[in-house]
Automatic annotation (TrEMBL):
The keyword Signal applies. It comes from the Bacteria. Residues 1-21 form the signal peptide. This is M23 family metallopeptidase. Its EC number is 3.4.24.-. Gene3D superfamilies: Glucose Permease (Domain IIA). It holds the Pfam family Peptidase_M23. It comes from Spirosoma flavum. It is an enzyme of class 3 (hydrolase). Keywords: Hydrolase, Signal.
């Protein structure tokens, strides 16, 4: 073997060894964490969580897990979420929000005509009632500690399947109305309505659109709503336990017949209450 060829082989093997060493020192690429949800759903990030945030809003974790409720009208797109662990570590991920098609409900021959052509007096009443309710269900920087667990309890004994009309786009006798903010359950007239969790009654009132209504604060920004009741058996500031009867199913307010309407606001987001009835492990999770 001549000297030139020997030197060439030495250089080749030295280059190969250096390349292998460099490869071993290069850290593996870690894929960014993300989770995908539809409007009205809840995302989950488990594991020793202490504090959670979505964009500029932050709140405490629930039993070591961060939950990110997505409002039914949240603009589809990519959002930054983060969590602070009990060990002080700050982690971030991407929340991918997808649009959920609006189910169309056309309610024809609506029986209560005062809700079709609303009088000036009733319009003023509804505005006044909304001004009272909106501050109660909106996002707050300081919230009471959570007194609930997930999944929450059922709002009625032998709860039937929901009618799938959360977020529905509605018309009354051909006239457009606001989207439906809750889930309706075909529970019969006079059946007991149950609180989905421990909490404190925020408001009990007869309202123009929602009829006899009860709002309960469960801590951590979770508010449950029960509308169109025949009657209620609780009062404001009363402490409530999970499964306690708070009233009876009715047909007061803007309805076509008796049923149980349940709504949920979590950190100000209007979400499908059905997602809080499932095992949390079945929620879309950050990975």
């Amino acid at each position: 073997m001549n000297v030139v060829r020997l030197l060439t082989l030495i250089v080749f093997y030295l280059s190969l060894a250096m390349a292998q060493a460099q490869t071993q020192k290069t850290p593996s690429v870690i894929s960014p964490k993300s989770v995908s949800v539809a409007q009205g759903q809840v995302a989950r990030w488990a594991g020793n969580c202490l504090r959670c945030s979505l964009e500029k809003r932050a709140w405490a974790a629930v039993n070591g897990t961060c939950y990110y409720p997505v409002d039914m009208d949240m603009k589809p797109g990519h959002y930054t979420i983060s969590r602070r662990t009990t060990g002080g570590k700050l982690e971030t991920a991407t929340l991918n929000v997808a649009a959920k098609e609006c189910v169309q409900e056309d309610l024809k021959n609506f029986p209560k005509l005062e809700y079709v052509n609303v009088s000036t007096q009733n319009q003023a009443r509804a505005v006044k009632e909304a001004a009272l309710v909106n501050p109660l269900i909106s996002f707050k920087t300081k919230e009471r500690p959570a007194v609930f667990d997930l999944p929450v309890g059922k709002p009625a004994h032998n709860l039937p399947k929901g009618e799938g009309n959360f977020g529905a786009c509605r018309t009354l006798n051909g006239q457009p109305r606001d989207r439906h903010t809750g889930q309706d359950y075909p529970v019969g007239m006079g059946k007991p309505v149950l609180s989905v969790g421990n909490g404190r009654v925020l408001l009990v009132a007869n309202q123009f659109y929602s009829g006899n209504s009860v709002y309960i604060d469960h801590g951590n920004g979770l508010i449950s709503e029960y509308f169109h009741l025949k009657s209620y058996s609780v009062k404001a500031n009363q402490t409530i336990t999970k499964g306690q009867s708070i009233g009876l199913v009715g047909e007061t307010g803007r309805v076509t017949g008796p049923h149980l309407h349940v709504g949920v606001r979590w950190h100000g987001a209007c979400i499908n209450p059905g997602y809080l009835l499932i095992d949390p492990s079945d929620m879309p999770a950050v990975n």
